[in-house]
Amino acid sequence: MEEQKQAKTAAVKGTDMARKVRGMVKHIYQSAHEAKQTGKKVAYSMIMSQYDEILRAMDVVPLPTENFAGVCAAKRQMDRFLLQAEADGYSQSLCSYARIGLGFDSLRKEGGGIPDNSPDGGMAMPDMMLGSSSVCDPRYKWFQAAGRFLDVPRYSVDVVSPPIHANLEDTRDYYIRYQAEQLRGLITFLEKQTGKKMSEDRLWESIRLCDEAWRLWYDIDRLRVAVPSPMPSQDHFSIMAAAHYYAGTQMAVDFYQGLYDEVKYKAANTIGVIPDEKYRILYGAGLPPWHTLWIFNYFESFGAVFVIENVYRAYDPVEVPSSVKDPVEYLAWRTFLRVTQWHEKARTRSGNPFVEKLLEMAADYQTDGVVFHACRSCRASTLGQTHIKNLLGRYTDIPMMQLTSDMVDLRDYSESQWKAQIGAFIEALAARKRG
């Protein structure tokens, strides 16, 4: 275990702004501890649950449990939390994000306080836990299981997406109405927990800031079509923190404005991530290996740069009708449009919205290959990857590779195996270039 703690994990970043994110991440946990001292409410929360602006408008401090698991992995401090959860009866096949969170809460209860030397000071005791059905089932069940260790109120929001074959015109009103009901239920819950009413004006302001930050992030990604690449995927997996964990704040807007200016300058002056970019790679699917992010730099040693990714990325812009005047309805509309924006295109070709997005990215960013990461404990991002890879192969002949490990559990990772696979993949990229 001591070897793990000292091992290299982080990747060398390509932009100055990405190097500032570490301080922002530390502030997430610091602000939660400060909130406990000042009487603000702290909530365990989930990424991409569509409720971020509501929390900011209600002065509830979000504490992203999934991110804490990533921090633990990046600092190689995950083993004790994983093993504690498994000792409590949770299978190694359960989401390792959840196992770290449950192991942390279990050790805190067992020891009567935050476990010693927890990364970034550990997670503050939450006043509530806010689950979500978005993306996967552990996000809905995790906090229910955490009730073994935390006696705090829980509320889960259902975030729904129509199936690909649904007639969007026929189903739209139902889905939007249902989503609005879910969000209003959350507001009622938060009003009870905080003892104050939601301000519609504050919610609109939070929405405005959130939309502005996401738009800037999207614009940054559009700049990345430049050759050579002005920003690599390892930066993306850092800078995502601003939008996902500071949604609805001026801090997020200011951060992305600074990053936009930097990436725009690099693109305009053909300043690449590495001096000699030979291959452009699309990170196709699977959560990143937080324990081994330096692997992106290993690819770069062969002249291969990850130029874009379809994981933890910015939502493509959507246009909510101007007739929508209620902020909760706006959020519901925006969610529906976000989760269905590739449905129509998919129906005309591959039948799979995910494949359609990858095909567009591969063309726009002139990628030479695609890399997938199969995470053993993440069913949501791993199940179907082989099918997607095969389906993608019907429409493009660029080489593809699937690496296997886990997003935070190092026991599922083999450095020698990865390097052998990467070597073969680079040879395939080179052969295609020659051909």
Terminal CA distance reads: 46 Å
Give the helix proportion (percent range). Answer: 40-55%
Q: Which stretches are poorly predicted, pLDDT < 50 over at least 5 residues?
A: 1-6
SSE series:
HHEHEHHHEHEHHHHEHEHHHEHHEH
Task: Determine the number of helices (DSSP H or I, runs of at least 4 residues).
Answer: 18
Main beta-sheet annotation:
4 strands, parallel
Rg over CA atoms: 21 Å
Question: How do the strands of the widest beta sheet line up side by side?
Answer: 2-1-3-4
Principal-axes geometry comes out as: globular
- Output the structural class: alpha/beta
- The overall strand count is 8
Mean pLDDT: 95
Approximately how much beta-strand content do the residues carry? 5-15%
List keywords for this structure.
alpha/beta; four-stranded parallel beta sheet
What do you see in this structure?
The protein has 435 residues and is of the alpha/beta class. 52% of the residues lie in helices and 10% in strands. It is built from 18 helices and 8 strands. The chain has helices at residues 2-6, 21-38, 52-57, 65-74, 79-87, 96-111, 138-145, 168-194, 200-223, 233-245, 250-268, 295-300, 327-340, 343-348, 353-364, 379-382, 385-392, 415-434, and strands at 42-45, 61-64, 128-132, 154-157, 279-285, 304-309, 369-375, 400-405. It has a 4-stranded parallel sheet, sandwiched between helices. Strands 6-5-7-8 form a 4-stranded parallel sheet, sandwiched between helices. Helix 12 (295-300) links the parallel strand 5 (279-285) and strand 6. Mean pLDDT is 95; it is low at 1-6.
